[in-house]
Write a structure and sequence with these properties.
It holds the Pfam family Aminotran_5. Its EC number is 1.4.4.2. One of its GO terms (biological process) is glycine decarboxylation via glycine cleavage system. It catalyses: N(6)-[(R)-lipoyl]-L-lysyl-[glycine-cleavage complex H protein] + glycine + H(+) = N(6)-[(R)-S(8)-aminomethyldihydrolipoyl]-L-lysyl-[glycine-cleavage complex H protein] + CO2. The chain is an alpha/beta fold. It folds into three domains: 35-42 and 68-89; 109-365, Type I PLP-dependent aspartate aminotransferase-like (Major domain) (Aspartate Aminotransferase, domain 2, 3-Layer(aba) Sandwich), CATH 3.40.640.10; 374-505, Aspartate Aminotransferase, domain 1 (Alpha-Beta Complex). Helices cover 33% and strands 10% of the residues. It contains 16 helices and 14 strands. The strands form four sheets. The chain has a seven-stranded mixed beta sheet with strand order 3-9-8-7-6-4-5, with helices on both faces. It has a three-stranded antiparallel beta sheet with strand order 12-14-13. Strands 1-2 form a two-stranded antiparallel sheet. The structure holds pyridoxal-5'-phosphate. The site of pyridoxal-5'-phosphate (PLP) has 14 residues, from helix 7.
C-alpha cells in the first residue's frame, strides 16, 4: 500500500510482515552483523598484562590513530562464527548436488589424520631430515596417483585444478621449446570448463574452439581438421562437463601426437573413472587431479584445494621444483636447480613451497581407507547414483543429449520448462527453500539453461529419493503455472534474491562505519 507520496505506508507484502520481528531474527535463523558492527571498539574479551613501556624504534612510522579493532567476549565471538556458519549450505548439512564441482562427504578420519602434529605443525623451511614422515607421505600419495593414472611422474605443488592446468601447460611449452620449436595455439572443446581457455590464453596461446557433436562429445574429425604444426596441445576433459565419456579419446590422442602436439587431460572428473581406466592408457600427457574433488577434502567456500599434475614420460623431465626423486634410501626432496641431475630439467617453480600438506594427508587417508577396490566402487557408485537421478527425473525433465546413460553427473536443460514462465534460475532458487543447494546452473555453456546434477557416491538411496521427490514436486508446480512460488523464492534463506551480477562487478570489499542509526527518521 503506497501513501500519496508514493512511499509504502506499511509492510504490504506477506513476506515483509512475516519478517517483522523486533530483533530481525526468524526463530533460530539469526540476523548477524559484521564483527565491526556487533563488537565494541577497544574492548577485549581477554585479559592481557599491561605491555612494558619500551622505546619505540619506529621513528616516524608509528600508528597515530586508534587501531579500531572490535572486541567481543568469548561467547559472543563463538556465537558470531557459529551463526555465520549456519547461513551457508554445506555438505555436512545436506545433499549438495553441484555438478562439475564434486562436493562429496569428507570422512572425519581424514580430519583426524590431517591434524596429527607431525603433519599439521611442521614448517616448510624445516630441513627435510626433520620431516621425513611428511616426505614419505608425499611419496606414498605420489605412488597412488601414478598407479591410478598410469603416468610417469607427478608434480604435487599446484594449489588447485586451474593452477595444475598452468603447470601442465608450462611443461608442455617447455617440452616443445626443448625440441627447438615454438607453437602458438591450443585446441579447446566448447564444452570445456572456463579455466581451460583461460590457462591457454594466459600463456599467450591462441585458443581454437572445437565444437561438440550432436551427442555432446568431441568429433575426432573436427580435431583433425584443426590440427597443424602450430598446435601445441588439446585440452580435453574426460568424462566431459556434460557428464559423458569421450568415446573417441584414443583416436583423438593419436591424431594429436601425430601432429607433434600434446594431450592435456583435465582431470576434474577423475572421480567417475578411478579404478576403471588409467588416463595414461588413453594417451594423456599431463593431467591435474583435483584432490578436493576426487579424494574428499572440504572445498566449499573457495578453498583450500590441491591440484597435483601427473606427467607422461615425454613431460616428466620438465616437472617444476620442488619435486620428489626416487632415491635408494627413500624419496629425496629436490628443492633447487643446483640439486637436479642429468635428465631433470624443471621449468621453474610454481609455488614458494611444497603444496598443501593437509590436502595430501586427507587424500591419502581417503585412498588408504577405501583401498583399491573401494576407490573403484566409489566411482561406480557415483555413476550409479547419477544415473538413478537421471532415470527418475527423465519423464519430467528434458535431457539435451537424449535419454541415455551418463557418467557421474546428470544434465538437463531449460526445455524442461517449456510452456511455463519459469527459468532455470527460478527453479534453482526454489530448491534453496527445499533445503538443497542448487545444482550447477547455466554450465556447461553449450547447453541452454543447463542444470547439472552430481550426487556423488556419498548419498544414500533414501536421500536421493527425497531429493528426487523435491525436484518432481517443484516441476509439477512449474507445470501447474505456480509462477509466483518461483518468482518469490527463496523465501526462507537468510537473504532473498541478491543482485549477483552487481555483487560480482562492484564488490564492496572494505568495511565502512555504518551511518549512525537514522536519528532523523
Ligand atoms: C573444477 C574444475 C576445474 C578447476 O579446478 P579448481 O580446483 O577449481 O581450480 C577445471 N576443470 C573442470 C572440468 C572443473 O570441474
Amino acid at each position: 500500500m503506497l501513501n500519496n507520496q508514493g512511499r509504502p505506508s506499511r509492510p504490504d507484502t506477506a513476506a515483509a510482515s512475516e519478517a517483522a520481528t523486533f530483533t530481525g531474527n526468524k526463530a533460530l535463523q539469526i540476523e548477524e552483523g559484521l564483527l565491526f558492527e556487533i563488537g565494541q571498539r577497544e574492548v577485549t574479551g581477554i585479559d592481557l598484562p599491561e605491555a612494558p613501556v619500551a622505546k619505540s624504534r619506529l621513528g616516524n612510522h608509528g600508528r597515530k590513530t586508534e587501531i579500531g579493532l572490535p572486541g567481543l567476549s568469548e561467547p559472543e565471538t563463538m556465537r558470531h562464527y557459529v551463526r555465520l556458519s549456519r547461513q551457508n549450505h554445506a555438505i555436512d548439512l545436506g545433499l549438495y548436488p553441484l555438478g562439475s564441482c564434486t562436493m562429496k562427504h569428507n570422512p572425519r578420519l581424514n580430519e583426524r589424520m590431517a591434524r596429527l602434529p607431525g603433519f599439521a605443525d611442521i614448517h616448510p623451511l624445516q630441513p627435510a631430515s626433520t620431516v621425513k614422515g611428511a616426505v614419505d607421505l608425499m611419496a606414498d600419495l605420489s605412488h597412488w596417483l601414478l598407479e591410478m593414472t598410469g603416468m610417469e611422474t607427478v608434480a604435487l605443488s599446484p594449489k588447485a585444478g586451474a593452477h595444475g592446468e598452468l603447470c601442465g601447460m608450462v611443461a608442455i611449452r617447455a617440452a616443445i621449446e626443448a625440441r627447438g620449436e615454438t607453437r602458438g595455439s591450443v585446441l579447446v572443446p566448447e564444452s570445456a570448463h572456463g579455466t581451460n581457455p583461460a590457462t591457454a590464453a594466459l600463456l599467450g596461446y591462441k585458443v581454437i574452439p572445437v565444437p561438440a557433436r550432436a551427442d555432446g562429445t568431441v568429433d575426432p574429425a573436427a580435431v583433425k581438421e584443426r590440427l597443424s604444426s602450430d598446435v601445441a596441445a588439446i585440452m580435453l576433459t574426460n568424462p566431459n562437463t556434460c557428464g559423458l565419456f569421450e568415446r573417441d579419446v584414443v583416436e583423438i590422442a593419436e591424431a594429436v601426437h601425430a601432429a607433434g602436439a600434446f594431450f592435456y587431460g583435465d582431470g576434474a572428473n577423475f572421480n567417475a573413472i578411478v579404478g576403471k581406466v588409467r588416463p595414461g592408457d588413453l594417451g594423456v600427457d599431463a593431467m591435474h587431479i583435483n584432490l578436493h574433488k576426487t579424494f574428499s577434502t572440504p572445498h566449499g567456500g573457495g578453498g583450500p584445494g590441491a591440484g597435483p599434475v601427473v606427467l607422461s614420460k615425454a613431460l616428466a623431465p620438465f616437472a617444476p621444483l620442488p619435486f620428489l626423486r626416487r632415491g635408494e634410501g627413500g624419496p629425496v626432496l629436490v628443492e633447487t636447480a643446483e640439486a637436479t641431475q642429468d635428465g631433470e630439467r624443471p621449468f621453474g617453480r610454481l609455488t614458494a613451497f611444497h603444496g598443501q600438506m593437509g590436502m595430501y594427508t586427507r587424500a591419502l587417508a581417503y585412498m588408504l581407507s577405501h583401498g583399491a577396490d573401494g576407490l573403484k566402487q566409489a566411482s561406480e557408485d557415483a555413476v550409479l547414483n547419477a544415473n538413478y537421478v537421471r532415470a527418475r527425473l527423465s519423464d519430467l525433465f528434458h535431457a539435451p543429449y537424449g535419454d541415455r546413460p551418463c557418467m557421474h553427473e546428470a544434465l538437463f536443460d531449460d526445455h524442461s520448462f517449456e510452456g511455463t514462465e519459469i527459468t532455470t534460475l527460478d527453479f534453482a532458487k526454489a530448491l534453496i527453500d527445499e533445503g538443497y543447494h542448487p545444482m550447477t546452473m547455466y554450465f556447461p555453456l553449450v547447453v541452454h539453461g543447463a542444470m547439472l546434477i552430481e550426487p556423488t557416491e556419498s548419498e544414500s538411496r533414501a536421500s536421493l529419493d527425497l531429493f528426487i521427490a523435491a525436484m518432481r514436486d517443484l516441476m509439477m508446480r512449474a507445470k501447474a503455472g505456480e509462477v509466483e512460488h518461483f518468482r518469490a523464492a527463496p523465501r526462507f534463506a537468510p537473504r532473498r534474491r541478491l543482485d549477483e551480477t552487481r555483487a560480482a562487478r562492484q564488490p564492496k570489499l572494505a568495511w565502512s562505519e555504518p551511518a549512525p542509526a537514522a536519528a532523523a527518521e
